[in-house]
Amino acid sequence: xxxxxxxxxxxxxxxxxxxxxxxxxxxxxxxxxxxxxxxxxxxxxxxxxxxxxxxxxxxxxxxxxxxxxxxxxxxxxxxxxxxxxxxxxxxxxxxxxxxxxxxxxxxxxxxxxxxxxxxxxxxxxxxxxxxxxxxxxxxxxxxxxxxxxxxxxxxxxxxxxxxx
Length: 164
Fold this sequence. Notes:
This protein is mainly β and 164 residues long. It contains two helices and nine strands, in the order H-E-E-E-E-E-E-E-E-H-E.
């Protein structure tokens, strides 16, 4: 049993070290993520499903600027669909893939409201090969319109591709 744990620990360390130099200046990034399936919560929504796409550029080692767009559908009868566009950035804390992100989004909710939501996230870029990652992240988006009903905390899983 201990042998298995030691082998698993060594494998995790090898994967973490293989991310070295992946976040260097000049790389481009393309990503997509899936949110929802009861993995996010706000005061108004019960179940929601969202998809997002983003593109970015590492303008300096470990610093990325991002643009994103997303769509979310929920079972909320007042606001069934949301469309989002935004800008943000990521800072890769260390070369193993842990990152902090800050962003601002403009949200248009069908038949209901518009909002600007600054947000933050913490995630991990787990490399499955030299350029493709699986990126789980926790996020928080703060609503300026109505904090208790529209601010959102959630979990998302994305796939990213880092291109030279």
